[in-house]
TrEMBL record:
Main localization, broad class: other
Lineage: Bacteria, Pseudomonadati, Pseudomonadota, Betaproteobacteria, Burkholderiales
Coiled coil: none
Keywords: Isomerase, Peroxisome
Annotated CDD domains: crotonase-like
The protein's name: Enoyl-CoA hydratase/carnithine racemase
Similarity section: Belongs to the enoyl-CoA hydratase/isomerase family.
Organism whose genome encodes this protein: Giesbergeria anulus
SUPFAM superfamilies, sorted: ClpP/crotonase
Amino acid sequence: MNPMSTSNTDILVHTEAGISTITFNRVGKKNSITSSMYATLADLFEAAATDAAVRVVVLQGDVAVFSAGNDIADFLQNPPETLDAPVFRLMRAVAAFPKPLLAAVCGPAVGIGTTLLFHCDLVYAGDNAAFSMPFVNLGLCPEAASSLLVPQMLGYHRAAEALLLGEPFFAEAALEVGLVNRILPPTECNAVAQAQARKLAAKPLAALIETKRLLKLGQAPAVLERIEQEGARFIRMLAEPAAREAFSAFVEKRRPDFQQL
Ligand code: COA
């Protein structure tokens, strides 16, 4: 089987002229990500890292929603139990991805929909983009090394606001702190990411890889270590009462009650 293909219809992949475009395709559930989608994504990133046909990867969602983050119902039924679970495999594969990685983000980018962006090299946002990391509101802790990377990029106090309150911030704020490169009309976002990807795909790959490696040299081991440290806590917290209450409330479409927790 072509390493850059998938039978999972919730994730689309198209590789052409050195550019592999991975698309979240579960719009009915706001592109929330199930365990099987994490496994597919992890396989794709692991394959793309060494596939000579892939020089650049673009990650994109829908014009109205990038991703609502973890599928909460799936989390209730299939919580990750070890650091080998697909969600953590994806985080490591993206954090260590050696080639240029671009994202086109329109609409909500919740949880891992935002934390993945800290591992992308170029991010293009629709003017409707809304970024949020509501882990505390779900009784959880940060993931994907966001407890390290968010304060590095936003500064401590804005990071604390984003991670403790878990409220959304929007495209202009993301541009100001450097999380996104450009704000665009949502209908142009994917096309601009593709145009930038074409420029990168035409450049010498070894020079791109070496430059990215050097750009990340200072933080690379710490990022992988933080993914593991957060992951161990995240797995434990998933089974605790606050997360169970938050997830049940979401599925039952009611407000969570944390009064006793
Ligand atoms: N997990 C599972 N299902 C989800 C989901 C998620 N993270 N996010 C949305 N959905 C589902 C909803 O349950 C709903 O399903 P239904 O039509 O079968 O009832 C459908 O997607 C549409 O969602 P809805 O909330 O009605 O859309 P919206 O446009 O009003 O709001 C969001 C969009 C993304 C702001 C909102 O869905 C949301 O906040 N989702 C949860 C985000 C979250 O906490 N993610 C976890 C991060 S760790």
